[in-house]
Every structure is written in C-alpha cells, then in structure tokens.
Amino acid sequence: MRQIILDTETTGLEWKKGNRIVEIGCVELLERRPTGRTFHQYINPQREFEQGAAEVTGLSLDFLADKPLFAGIADEFLAFIDGAELIIHNAAFDIGFLDYELSLLGPSYGRMHDRVRVEDSLLLARQRFPGQRNSLDALCKRLGVDNTHRQLHGALLDAQLLCDVYLNLTAGQREIGFAGVEETETASAATFVFTAAIAAPRPRVQPDAEELAAHQARLEKLRKKAGGVCLWDALEGTQEAVATVV
Questions:
Q1: What is the C-alpha separation between 57 and 162, in angstroms, rounded?
Q2: What element of type H or E holds 245?
Q3: Fewer CB within 10 Å: C terminus or N terminus of the chain?
C-alpha cells in the first residue's frame, strides 16, 4: 500500500473566507515504511495572513512573494499523491483547503476524493485515547516521538512528525484481528490469506453483579453530565447487551 502523510499551512482557519494554502509537505510510505521521497513547496497566497496565522508558521508575505502560485505546482503535487491513501491530522481542514484551491483551477481538476483515499489520524487518536488531548504535540509526547525541534508549525516538519506518530499509533495493526492469517507477498503489495482459525469462536465473558452495578453507576454519572441523556441508552438492545457482555 502506498500512503502519503500530508500537512498544509494556510493564511487563516477558513477557506470559505478566501484563505489560501501557503505551504504543503508530504512524506511517502510504501508498505508502512518511509521511502525517503517527499514533496515540499511554499506557495504565494496572493492575500494577507489573518491575525496570528503568520506567527504560527513563521512565514511572511515577503518570504512568499517570489514563490509559485498554487496553479504552478498543482500538477506536480497531484502527480505525487494520485492513487495513494492520504494520512492527515484533522483531515477535513486540509481537504477543505485543497478542494478550494482545485476549484479555483477549474472543474477539470475535480476534488481530492476523486483521486485519493483519506485516513484522519485525529479520529484514530480519539478512538485510541478517548477524552484526552490529541493534538500533534500531545500525541508526540504520549507516543514518545521527539518534537523538541518543533518551534513553529511547518508543513514538511509536521508531516514527518505525523509519520512517526501514525506508525506508533497503528503499530500492532497487523497483529490485532489477523491472528491465524497467513501473509504472502505479491509483486506490488502484501496480501492476506485467511485460515480457518480466524473463524474460531470468541471467548464469552459474563459480568458479575458488582461489575454490573459499577457499570450502571458510571452510566448514571454520564446522564447527569449530559443533562439526562446518555448515548448508551439510545443503543438498541442495550439492556440485553449489558447482561451478556462479550
């Protein structure tokens, strides 16, 4: 599988207000291994930064004045990412800006989802670490990724850090759920042959009275915090699921 870790920097937070991309950074992975290939480009946005945006990136309009427009780098960028799976932290932000930039070039460029698949590493982090801070800096600290050299936001630097974070975040992905799977290599990618062991019955655990009481107490706390509404209560067959936890 070919994956591209991608990050962008922009003149502001919302493309709907006319903000533009000022930097793109990409790191290529092949079968979850960095290939050493990267894409990095500063871009002249042809507009001012919003308040605070320039300080976050350390970029200025003077520095970007002689850089190419997005139109000038679009084809090279698209050739680099075409057909890959993009790994992006808070993907909706970057994809929104990239789709906006493509729309300014005309309908023939289409949208990002026409060209690539997208995996949001922020959603992956929230699933693994619910209720915790899952910014890139927080994940670097939690997963042991050295980011001491990150003083400012930079697209290529952040893509390189996200690469390490993503690989740590999904380390064991091949082990979980793939017990009893025989791996074979093809010329282009790894494929999996499932054996009968994968269909073996899973162990069933029956909670005792104390565990059920603790579960109900926890739900009651959630109901109080949420104004009497708890997502668990809305699930179909909740009571039966509580009585037979798998």
A1: 17
A2: none
A3: C
51 in Cβ contact with 39 (< 8 Å): no
For 2-169, which CATH class?
alpha beta
pLDDT band at 17 (very low <50, low <70, confident <90, very high): very high
| C-beta of residue 169 within 8 angstroms of C-beta of residue 128 | yes
- Of 239, 4, 236, residue with least CA distance to 119: 4
Positions marked catalytic:
153
Give 5's strand partners.
Answer: 27, 87
> At which residue do the structure tokens 């269909």 appear?
199
**Residue 216 — very low, low, confident or very high, per pLDDT cuts 50/70/90?**
confident
Q: What is the pLDDT of residues 62-115, one digit of tens each?
A: 999 999 999 999 999 999 999 999 999 999 999 999 999 999 999 999 999 999
3-class DSSP state of 92 = helix
Contacts of 189 (CB under 8 A, 6+ apart): 1, 31
